[in-house]
Amino acid sequence: MCSSTKRTQHGIFISMETRIEQKSRAQGSNSHFTFVLLLQIFPFLCTMAFSSVGRKKMAGHAAFLLVDIIVLALAARVNQFQDFFYVADIFPLALSIISLVFVVTLTALDFALVNSYTARPQSEIGIFGVLSIFWLAFNAFSTSRWRLVPLQCDSIPSDFLDERHWCKDLQALKSFVWINFLICFGITLFTLRYAISQYNRGNKHVFQMPLSRYQPDLNVNNDGLSFYGGRGSEFLQFEKLT
């Protein structure tokens, strides 16, 4: 939102600054200094809000968490029926818990910290990439063990209602574990592709700040936070005035 209205706001600021400068000549320079200071704070406040790509990233995380919770619930029911005996059933349960802890922690840190290192593209690519590998490997193992379970669960005699419900839960689990892998792998590819494309365009600060607050036209200081725009920013104009 901040980047989309930047030109309009810039024009308004210049007009307001001109009028205030005229008044400040008669009333002193304090008001002009205060207004210019506010101009420097405004871009910083923009970085506090999530950018467009940041909102897309959060939507991907939310989708992953939703499917992961479904996998966790289904895996818990399947394992409860089997008394947590089969490894093929335990893998989705354990991995869904690990994924839930990691992604919730990443999201919480991203909300809590303006410059969270774990929210930078290189960190998320590594974390979701490793999770994708584990989901792929464990899904392949579990699916191969589930091949003997009948696809038509209604073919199980009605006298075995518990077994029929278990069969349906297992078939649903078989589908959702692969959906979870696809979302996780998709997040990895999207983050990798976007970060590399921005870096190749000369926006090297894409790896120096959280992707949720990344904007191509931001400049980054040593702390990874943006306080000013390009070469024609108000900050440099203020330096010339002083």
TrEMBL record:
Alphabetic keyword roster: Membrane, Transmembrane, Transmembrane helix
Record-annotated membrane-spanning stretches: 33-51, 58-78, 90-113, 125-142, 176-196
Protein name (database record): MARVEL domain-containing protein
